[in-house]
């Protein structure tokens, strides 16, 4: 391969020449506005739709009104969903789904890979991967069937990632899967297939951070500088922050009112055209510049959703006031039972949310352990997969999903429709609380239990098998008046005794499948 140093920058005056020092953030934004001027009438029409929806329904576009939001019953009962990161970023299939950003950053291994593999960024930029995103083997009905077999009760598709390529038929962009690449409205086709399987359907938007996502492309010779592609690469203003990525209170990135209007219009498209049961918003929508627009969208979405049994708006960190939506804790857990339903999202891959070559994958056991911990605290698990650009799901991912589905088919009464018990769990292993803390987790033992309750039974979920044939649950005492114990998935009766030490179990034969085991414990009906 040719080394990076061999590539010469385009001459001054080239449309690909660096612009980072030549244009102000406002000028960068104005170039994007000129490139998207043709969509102004449709944008205005969508904003008018929002204004109309704000005024019809129980919610107003202010946070005091939105604090009266209540999580719909279907979400609290669902417990397990599938997230799908599928887009143009699957074509290079390198590192992770942030390849589109990092390929333009000359300090990263993605940049070195890009130049060594494809040549100068002025000749082969991110836009040039679209031709390789064909979805020629995609079968949305087969996907939906697999998700149902995996035990999922809802499916969330990425409608638009930070790369700015819409997976739906946006009226505000030419850079969509309906017009390029697959030339199909991916969201519409998947929505029909998912609902045909009896599952709830959701969408995610990562559009907010697109305003700066390609900013490194302005620092070197690349197609990000070419005004002809400004409608794809966006304003590409410098991401200017003085805290970390999660500290939006100290993020001073330039955002114009026009860009905020565009974000609101694009997010409105999702509800207007597809009526999703859930919309997941990535963290940067918590930037103060979006606050009023976010309240407007929430009122519009909740008012529309009230007509069909209620909808869910996921937010991260402090993007919305507590209680005004459903909190999502990315790649992390919470440390205690929560009074209202919440969600964690994580990926089946060990490295990426989207497809990358030579990836490794988590085991079904580790995911079921996570599910048990989250559900015991009144949460849901949204598990991500990353299909190939041709639409096929990686065999390793499919195998893990089917193993999870097998476990849920046997043990689902401990999960679906369950409620927290008086304590979430016991044992020596506690998950680290907070976002992006999942890698701090330690190995679970047979002394680790998580508890749920459904009807007249307590479900004690043991997170590893007791090799000595005996398990002790200290949280269940003689005062609970245990009447019966069964090990789900096993025909062997469980011998048990209630002692001062706790409920002592001798489960007998070990069930097959993921190494997480559920004891259904019937207690006196007056036991909380």
UniProtKB/TrEMBL annotation:
<dbReference type="Pfam" id="PF01120">
    <property type="entry name" value="Alpha_L_fucos"/>
</dbReference>
<dbReference type="InterPro" id="IPR017853">
    <property type="entry name" value="GH"/>
</dbReference>
<comment type="similarity">
    <text>Belongs to the glycosyl hydrolase 29 family.</text>
</comment>
<protein>
    <recommendedName>
        <fullName>alpha-L-fucosidase</fullName>
        <ecNumber>3.2.1.51</ecNumber>
    </recommendedName>
</protein>
<keyword id="KW-0378">Hydrolase</keyword>
<dbReference type="InterPro" id="IPR013780">
    <property type="entry name" value="Glyco_hydro_b"/>
</dbReference>
<feature type="region of interest" description="Disordered">
    <location>
        <begin position="1"/>
        <end position="22"/>
    </location>
</feature>
<dbReference type="InterPro" id="IPR031919">
    <property type="entry name" value="Fucosidase_C"/>
</dbReference>
<keyword id="KW-0732">Signal</keyword>
<feature type="domain" description="Glycoside hydrolase family 29 N-terminal">
    <location>
        <begin position="50"/>
        <end position="412"/>
    </location>
</feature>
<keyword id="KW-0326">Glycosidase</keyword>
<dbReference type="InterPro" id="IPR057739">
    <property type="entry name" value="Glyco_hydro_29_N"/>
</dbReference>
<dbReference type="InterPro" id="IPR000933">
    <property type="entry name" value="Glyco_hydro_29"/>
</dbReference>
<dbReference type="Pfam" id="PF16757">
    <property type="entry name" value="Fucosidase_C"/>
</dbReference>
<feature type="domain" description="Alpha-L-fucosidase C-terminal">
    <location>
        <begin position="448"/>
        <end position="505"/>
    </location>
</feature>
């Amino acid at each position: 391969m040719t080394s990076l140093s061999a590539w010469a920058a385009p001459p001054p005056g080239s449309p690909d020449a660096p612009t980072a020092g030549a244009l102000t953030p406002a000028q960068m934004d104005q170039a994007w506005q000129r490139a998207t001027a043709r969509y102004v009438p449709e944008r205005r029409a969508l904003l008018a739709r929002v204004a109309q929806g704000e005024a019809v329904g129980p919610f107003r576009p202010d946070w005091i009104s939105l604090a009266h939001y209540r999580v719909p019953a279907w979400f609290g009962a669902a417990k397990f969903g599938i997230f799908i990161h599928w887009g143009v970023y699957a074509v290079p299939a390198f590192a992770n789904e942030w390849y589109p950003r990092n390929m333009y950053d000359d300090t990263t291994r993605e940049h070195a890979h890009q130049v060594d593999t494809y040549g100068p960024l002025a000749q082969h930029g991110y836009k040039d991967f679209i031709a390789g995103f064909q979805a020629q083997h995609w079968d949305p009905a087969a996907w939906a069937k697999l998700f149902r077999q995996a035990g999922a009760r809802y499916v969330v598709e990425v409608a638009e990632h930070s790369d700015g390529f819409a997976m739906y038929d946006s009226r505000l962009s030419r850079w969509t899967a309906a017009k390029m690449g697959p030339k199909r409205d991916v969201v519409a086709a998947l929505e029909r297939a998912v609902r045909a399987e009896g599952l709830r359907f959701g969408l995610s938007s990562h559009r907010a951070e697109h305003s700066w996502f390609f900013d490194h492309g302005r620092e070197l010779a690349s197609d990000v500088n070419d005004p002809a592609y400004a409608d794809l690469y966006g304003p590409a203003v410098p991401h200017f922050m003085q805290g970390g990525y999660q500290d939006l209170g100290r993020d001073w990135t330039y955002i114009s009112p026009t860009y905020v209007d565009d974000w609101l219009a694009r997010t409105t498209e999702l509800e207007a055209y597809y009526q999703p049961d859930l919309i997941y918003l990535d963290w940067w929508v918590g930037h103060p510049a979006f606050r009023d627009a976010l309240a407007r969208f929430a009122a519009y979405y909740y008012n529309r959703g009230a007509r069909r049994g209620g909808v869910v708006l996921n937010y991260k960190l402090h993007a919305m006031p507590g209680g005004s939506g459903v909190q999502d804790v990315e790649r992390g857990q919470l440390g205690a039972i929560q009074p209202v339903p919440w969600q964690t999202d994580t990926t089946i891959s060990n490295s990426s949310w989207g497809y990358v070559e030579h990836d490794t994958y988590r085991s079904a056991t580790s995911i079921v352990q996570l599910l048990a911990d989250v559900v015991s605290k009144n949460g849901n698990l949204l598990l991500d997969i990353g299909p190939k650009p041709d639409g096929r799901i990686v065999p390793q991912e499919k195998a893990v999903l089917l193993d999870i589905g097998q476990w849920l088919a046997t043990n689902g009464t401990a999960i679906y429709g369950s409620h927290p018990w008086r304590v979430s769990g016991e044992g020596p292993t506690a998950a680290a609380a907070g976002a992006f803390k999942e890698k701090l987790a330690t190995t679970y033992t047979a002394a680790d239990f998580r508890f749920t309750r459904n009807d007249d039974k307590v479900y004690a979920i043991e997170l590893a098998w007791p090799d000595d044939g005996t398990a002790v649950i200290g949280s269940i005492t003689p005062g609970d008046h245990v009447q019966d114990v069964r090990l789900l998935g096993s025909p062997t009766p469980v011998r048990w005794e209630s002692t001062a030490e706790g409920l002592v179990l001798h489960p007998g034969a070990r069930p097959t499948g993921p190494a997480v085991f559920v004891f259904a414990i019937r207690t006196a009906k007056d036991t909380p």
